[in-house]
Amino acid sequence: SSGINAEWPLRPGNLDSGYRLSDDQLINHFPNHYELTRKDLLVKNIKRYRKELEKENSPLTEKDENCRYMHLDFIPVTYILPADYNIFVEEFRKNPTSTWIMKPNAKARGIGIFLINKLSQLKKWSRDSRQMGHNPKDTYVISKYIDNPHLIGGKKYDLRLYVLVTSYRPLKAYIYQLGFCRFCTVKYNSAVSELDNMFVHLTNVSIQKHGDDYNDKHGGKWTVHNLQMYLEHTNGKEVTDRLFDEINWIIVHSLKAVQGVMASDKHCFECYGYDVIIDDNLKPWLIEVNASPSLTSTTAADRIMKYTLIDDVLKIVCPNGEIPDPRWNKVPPKDSMGHFDLLIDEELAAQDQHENKSRSVSGRLPRTRPQQQWK
Questions:
Q1: pLDDT higher than 70, residue 332
Q2: CA torsion angle 226 229 231 233 (round to 10)
Q3: CA-to-CA dists, residue 31 to 28, 43, 168, 316, angstroms
Q4: Does pTM surpass 0.85?
Q5: Please, which residues have CB within 8 angstroms of residue 30's CB and are 6 or more apart in sequence?
Q6: pLDDT tens track for 166-179
Q7: Which of 90, 170, 219, 337 could cross-link 347 (Cys pair, CB 3.0–4.6 Å)?
């Protein structure tokens, strides 16, 4: 509508419809956001990004004695089915006791996810799918299951982090301070007998809220701040800071992986929901990125946080509550960012480099990474 200045559709829908936005209109999705938010395309783009950096002889592609990336190993080993089936079988047979997690590409909220530890289970699923009339063109990703998650109170959890991108070229992104952790309601058990128990393995609230042990007062959630305090108490501040630097690193390079293919329309911004799991070595893993993270609430605290999130996003994309101007692509002053922190600003980094300054764009330069990380 011509009377709308900023639109926040609950579902991305078809953004490439040919409709031209005027100079005072913004929308909360990039036209081909799916390059980051579809599970299969995210994997493809990260793999391509690694290969491009290897061609450039980038220090980011350094590998260890096991030929694993030392700086870009942040997604589990993943294959796309049915296209990569033979490659997956070859990998599976190298370690036949491993567990894998199967996810449909176009689903959310834990729908259609299951775990396998035998090839026969995958073959049975394929036969059953055909018999049930499922679309044979539907694609899935199958990933090495992180079977050693970091536990709190014996329970598995993951992090939901909100990342706002206002431009891909140059890349400008912000990370929200008020993310949260989602806990399973049943204590973690890696036994084969529990592979089908989604209350043990999947943290999605849409699944956990149906469990007998679900607590509707706190919704099975911690704030990220509470997690940081817990980890500082149990592992020390230096270790905890390093962990969150690693998470920032993952987010930045996932965005860089799609930067070249994303349509960076000046009328677009996007608030993504990043899902990250931490293993028992305190190594973070990127699980997926959501284009339309749920803004429904399960508790009073959840509702307040999400209202605040929307308000803080609008403070950045519509500074001072004024009519948006897509031509304005500057970073607002700190007191206008609400609970967001600047994660990366390539334009500012280029200025700093030109002025021969050595400060970090994010203010938290991970000490364990090559200095080229923000370039």
A1: yes
A2: -140
A3: 10, 19, 12, 20
A4: yes
A5: 15, 165, 168, 262, 263, 264, 265, 268, 270
A6: 999 999 999 999 99
A7: 170
